[in-house]
Amino acid sequence: MSTKDRRLRERGEREQRFLDKAQELIQRDGLLSLQMARIAEECDYAIGTLYQHFASKEDLLVTLATRNCLSRVHLFERAAHWRGPSRERMLAIALADLMVIRAQPEHFRLAQFVWTDVVWGAASALTRQRSLEANAPLGALIDGIVEDAIAAGDLRADIGLSPQAVTIGPWTLSLGMHTLTHAEGLLEAYALGDPYRLLMKHLHFLLNGYGWQPLFDPADDIALDALNARLCQAIFDSECPQTHRTATTLTAATALRSEVSP
After folding, report:
1. Model-level pTM?
2. Which residue in 57, 89, 138, 183 has the most C-beta neighbors within 10 A?
3. What is the full per-residue pLDDT of the chain (262 aa) written as tens digits?
4. How many Å apart are CA 125 and CA 38, to the nearest integer?
5. 3-state SS of the chain: helix, strand, coil percent to 5?
6. Coil, strand, or helix at residue 126?
7. Is 37 strand, coil or helix?
8. How far is CA 20 from the centre of its chain?
9. Spatial distance between the Cα atoms of 46 and 64, rounded to a whole number of angstroms
């Protein structure tokens, strides 16, 4: 190995060490308590070395959120490449996203923070571009489901939306429900039951509105639960996550943090 290659490898390993430590500190002390000086100190490096990797805390947070997001690629790939109806593959993407959030709630909280203007807008253009490029394969997987649906006749080619515009609908529904569910006490004021079960209903209403075949009756609770269970078992070899929003949900979410590796 040449000296240049060795230095590049060492730099990459050092960068991952900084990100690992940042993740650990966020889990331990909270997102808003994160300090660059603390990260450098606990990694036994001068803060100047840390700034050689990340020009600002915002750059570090965007990079960390991007790395966390890419941890779900394997689940998205299983959903997108499953040999089943295109509509069910799109629903499976939402279920995969839910599985990740239930297992790693702190990753979603970080993503929420990173996508605000105060962080995303303050990060360097290069860091933002790297994040967009790193996430592009995820978007391509989902867009590919729409393209397959059109090719199979499940979705009309003249719907008037590009594949990217079609997938924005399910994405915003999922993101919005995740945001509301993680806002402590917000949904308790409404008798909504399980918010994620409601999310799957809304997704079916949306896909029905697209005319995505085969149409599904979201009011049929038995069929809805059976479909979710079948997709989770067939695609992910797993039971669907239980996400009832009860008084114990927050306690359970807190307990989950201790089970997630930094």
Report:
1. 0.84
2. 89
3. 778 778 889 999 999 999 999 999 999 999 999 999 999 999 999 999 999 999 999 999 999 999 988 877 899 999 999 999 999 999 999 999 999 888 888 888 899 999 999 999 999 999 999 999 999 999 999 999 999 999 999 999 999 999 999 999 999 999 999 988 888 778 887 777 789 999 999 999 999 999 999 999 999 999 999 999 999 999 999 888 754 433 333 333 333 333 333 3
4. 25
5. 75, 0, 25
6. helix
7. helix
8. 18
9. 20
Residue whose tokens read 């989950």: 256
Cα-Cα-Cα-Cα dihedral sign, residues 204, 210, 213, 219: positive
- The single residue listed with the structure tokens 């997987």 is 141
Tokens encoding 147: 């393209």
Q: Which residue has the tokens 């940042």?
A: 22
**Tokens 């994160």 found at:** 34
